[in-house]
Amino acid sequence: MLYPVALMTVLAARSGARWPESLDQRLLWLLPIPAVLDFLGDLLSGRHRPARQVLATVALAIAMGVAWLRLQDGLGDGLVWSVVATYGLACLFVVWARPRTADGRGELAGHEAHLGASPPDRR
């Protein structure tokens, strides 16, 4: 859903349906926030909410489409790369710093219990 909506955003913008470029600074920073929070919430709580993910993905895809447009004007767009780096590093940090299980695996404690028992070990 992310890429089709982003592509539709690009096509709509190319046909003239685009917010004013003066709003890029605000919207490129604000629109990804729901997706980042959804990702972090899923990771930390172990509870996936598909409806919430769809809404967050649509907002992210719109921002992504406008980012693609800006990058077509030049790959050195500081706004686009600062948004990507900031949110990407924030998510990476939480993945790296999240609680680990007693045996050191990268899964959250209790995550398997929430999703059900692990499949049997096949040796």
Draw up the topology in text:
Elements: H1 2-14, H2 24-30, H3 33-45, H4 50-73, H5 78-97, H6 111-115
Helix pairs in contact: 1-4, 2-4, 3-4, 3-5
Task: Give an overview in words.
- The chain has 123 residues and is an all-alpha fold.
- The protein has six helices and no strands.
- It has helices spanning 2-14, 24-30, 33-45, 50-73, 78-97, 111-115.
- The protein is globular.
- The termini are far apart.
- Mean pLDDT is 85; it is low at 109-114.
Overview in brief:
The chain has helices at 2-14, 24-30, 33-45, 50-73, 78-97, 111-115. It is mostly helical and 123 residues long.
Structural class: mainly alpha
Q: Overall 3D geometry?
A: globular
Report the strand count.
Answer: 0
End-to-end distance: 38 Å
Please tell me how large the radius of gyration is.
18 Å
Arithmetic mean pLDDT: 85
Tell me about the largest β-sheet.
Answer: none
Unreliable segments (pLDDT under 50, ≥5 consecutive)? 109-114
| Estimated share of beta-strand residues | under 5%
Helix content: 55-70%
Please count the helical segments: 6
Give the SSE string: HHHHHH
Keywords:
6 helices, mainly alpha, globular, single chain, 123 residues
